[in-house]
Amino acid sequence: MVMRKRSFALTVYLVLLMLPIYWLINMSLKPNEEILGALTLYPHELTFQNYIKIFTTPDWYQGYINSIIYVGLNTVISLVTALPAAYAFSRYQFIGDKHFFFWLLTNLMAPPAVFLLPFFQLYSTFGLIDTHLAVALAHCLFNVPLAVWILEGFMRGVPKEIDETAYIDGYSFPRFFVLVFLPLIRSGIGVTAFFCFMFSWVELLLARTLTTTAAKPIGAVMTRTVSASGIDWGLLAAAGVLTIVPGAIVIWFVRNYMAKGFALGRV
Amino acid sequence: MSRIVLDQVAHSYLPHPQTEADWALREMEHVWEDGGAYALLGPSGCGKTTLLNVISGLLQPSQGRVMFDDTDVTALPPQQRNIAQVFQFPVIYDTMTVAENLAFPLNNRKFDKTYVKQRVEEVAQMLDLEGDLHKKGARLSADAKQKISLGRGLVRADVAAILFDEPLTVIDPQMKWQLRRKLKQIHEQTATTLVYVTHDQNEALTFADKVVVMYEGQVVQVGTPQELFERPSHTFVGYFIGSPGMNLLDCQLEGKEAVVNGGRVPLNEAAAQRAHNATGRLQLGIRPEFLSFDARGQNGLPVRVEQVDDLGNYQILTVRLGGELLKVKIAEDAEPPGEDGSLRFPPDWTRLYANGQLVG
Amino acid sequence: MDRWPDHKAWFLVLPVAVLVAFSAIIPLMTVVNYSLQDVLGGTYFFVGAEWFEQLLHSDALHGALQRQFIFSFTVLAIEMPLGVAIALALPRRGWQVSLCLVLVALPLLIPWNVVGTIWQIFGRSDIGLGGWTLNELGIAYNYTSNSVDAWLTIVVMEVWHWTPLVVLLAYAGLQAIPDAYYQAAKIDGASAWAVFRYIQLPKMRGVLTIALLLRFMDSFMIYTEPFVVTGGGPGNSTTFLSQYLTRLAVGQFDLGPAAAFSIIYFLIILVFCYVFYRALEGIGKGAP
């Protein structure tokens, strides 16, 4: 009885969770006349016109490519810098380690709005505005601390004896780190990459401010649907649906690690 | 307190068991007498924990009935069974104090406040926990935590039995010994039925009045430690109990003698008679302690000494008899063996097994 | 676990330190610099604490701050219990686990402006299922003109968007509880409530603190989603701190006040972060 009630509540929650997404998909498959006409629960005049337009207009699909480039770049930078740092925090005691760790965490909490203007000026000085690198670096503000945090949790779960044995066996530090240690925390790296991808993919405020045309993210391109003649709802919805797809694919790959990855932080 | 009867109980974790190996517990009849101290002994994966969970009600057996005295409790959940169980890893309610932990099983059953307080104090005294009663559970050491888990089992005066599932695995060796003694004392004081699961034969033999040996989902022998040692009813028991285990040799029967690798071993008349009626693979079993080794090679079958291990208060010889290796236990001060010698098999200690089962 | 004392470990941390210095310290210094100066035709004047004084007496800031706190506490009060309840209802093993987790996590992977778009559409009374249904039921609902409706829309959107994070964290905490605890509770005759109160809740304390920390910070910094849905309106009714700051900095280009405001904003968050961090440390020590 209790189980029945529970799964009923769960089903209701999942349906409510999916409803707005369903509505977006529903709209993306309708022509604008049907959208603005009487409300229909499923597309009566099914059309892929909105999607075709996005895939054939360079301005549109370039937005997706830009987003994927800077997200990928950010994930790589975050992982490469965070891995040795997380190792240091999990294995060594050094001057100021606790303060530094806390300071890193505060960056995780910094409101992007605060950094908007200084970022713009800083990157202008270095001539980085409107490059993928600018957005990738800006997102490091919160992704690097996050990566250090998650990875440190995973690394602490690996016994120190493994390091000691490897050193006794004559491994140098870089060889040990790459050949022995990294394979041990594979799942941790996967989970971290997932989180870096996620937070970089969903952020728009910084991404939009630091780009103008060449590296413009899809989120900013979407504002093009608003014109003098009103909003092209179908196109907007189709663009929105397409931004959900990469996330959905990534979730599917890490689904088995997800619950575990969340639990391992520096607790 | 009550007598616990397992009537044709069997369990499989699969929905449709096909072969014998699909059954975690094969059909069994077994009685746990009221007030006994039992050890349930067997290797990992032999079904010990499954059997325990069937008794406590955490598992519903696929078939058969579980009876507490004359009551059929098969369908009852653990809450309604009056049974206590202590697990391998200490289970402690972190946010409660030690006293609250101990009182928890009683409070859940809405016992009277003054009675609960009195029981908690009694149990705390039994387990030497009086000083810790007001500490938070989370701050205690592993053995103190396990004592509290134990205490939660003892606090209920009405339980039919207390089941222990390898409770001392995470405890330091020194504490292990103390806690086991404590358990024995408690058993003497309260006369509650105790069932103690372990894969450690020393633990089983020192703790229990009766040892139940399990192997591949079956109970293969129930007996006192002495019976298990002297008359193992299954080759597995012979091999599993004792250090080193029983020597087992394939043999044929010729009259009143067993033929092993061409050598002849005399048998008891009765044993030989029963073995004649048995079918299947015939094995001769004898414990290393009962073999007598003669370094001059005058008595018994000729053997070659392969290895000598001095274990301080006795020596273990590994000797070759034809194609087979045997272990022999000899006294520390015995004559140092040369390369050759001979073995004598005392007929009273020589057992015969057909398809693993004792025949004589 | 004892760690090896070795100050050379700083070399391993160096890349992160450099990177974060570049993306945090230098920008922050610029902000501090601006907050103390005024710009007139390209020349800078030192104005000391003037911007801070001006801001601390600004009604617009007080309004935004007040709305921000009410908003953050409201969504936390809904998301935390709801997330825990959903996590308890999730199946513990079997193929359904993956399916449920993927569905639950989906909103987290949607770009924030698209989250805004989804609810902007869903809440409209002409083309959105949600708004249309409410109006059909006889409830006059319009988030663009009625500030209560706008508030409700933002809160519902936030709950929709972020409760999954709490669910996943709480679920991870539940998964980490060994079966023996549930078995012992059964033997001890504990009720479902007692199991929750004495086993599940204490074991989830760590992850729930993280959830609380992350959710508080993120809700406190909310910008994109309400910007897309309501643009801060009607009036200022859904203008939260980030909107206000962005308007000040980018819209009106008031660098001084914007910078001073940034610092106050950051300090508020820092204080909360510190409190949470200490709480986390305390839990870390209490655990066995």
From TrEMBL, chain A:
Superkingdom per UniProt: Bacteria
Keywords: Cell membrane, Membrane, Transmembrane, Transmembrane helix, Transport
Family the entry assigns: Belongs to the binding-protein-dependent transport system permease family.
Primary location: membrane
InterPro entries xref list: BP-dep_ABC_trans_perm, MetI-like, MetI-like_sf
Localization in the cell: Cell membrane
Membrane topology: Multi-pass membrane protein
Transmembrane region(s): 7-25, 68-89, 101-120, 132-155, 176-202, 233-254
Name of the featured protein: Sugar ABC transporter permease
Record domain ABC transmembrane type-1: where: 64-254
UniProt entry tagged with the keyword Cell wall biogenesis/degradation: no
From TrEMBL, chain B:
Keywords of the record: ATP-binding, Cell membrane, Membrane, Nucleotide-binding, Transport
Protein name per its UniProtKB record: ABC transporter ATP-binding protein
All copies of domain ABC transporter, residue ranges: 4-241
Keyword Membrane in annotation: yes
Record-level Gene Ontology MF annotations: ATP binding
PROSITE patterns: ABC_TRANSPORTER_2
UniProt-listed SMART domains: AAA
Sequence similarity: Belongs to the ABC transporter superfamily.
Keyword set includes tRNA-binding: no
Positions of transmembrane segments: none
Automatic annotation (TrEMBL), chain C:
Domain of life of the native organism: Bacteria
A Pfam match: BPD_transp_1
Main subcellular localisation: membrane
Membrane topology (UniProt): Multi-pass membrane protein
KW DNA damage (keyword) present: no
TM regions (residue ranges): 12-36, 69-90, 97-122, 150-174, 206-224, 258-277
InterPro entries named among the record's database cross-references: MetI-like (IPR000515), MetI-like_sf (IPR035906), Sugar_ABC_transporter (IPR052730)
UniProtKB keywords: Membrane, Transmembrane, Transmembrane helix, Transport
All residue ranges annotated as the ABC transmembrane type-1 domain in the record: 65-276
Subcellular location: Cell membrane
Similarity comment text for this entry: Belongs to the binding-protein-dependent transport system permease family.
Record's protein name: ABC transporter permease
Source organism of the structure: Rhodovibrio sodomensis
Lineage, broadest ranks: Bacteria, Pseudomonadati, Pseudomonadota, Alphaproteobacteria, Rhodospirillales
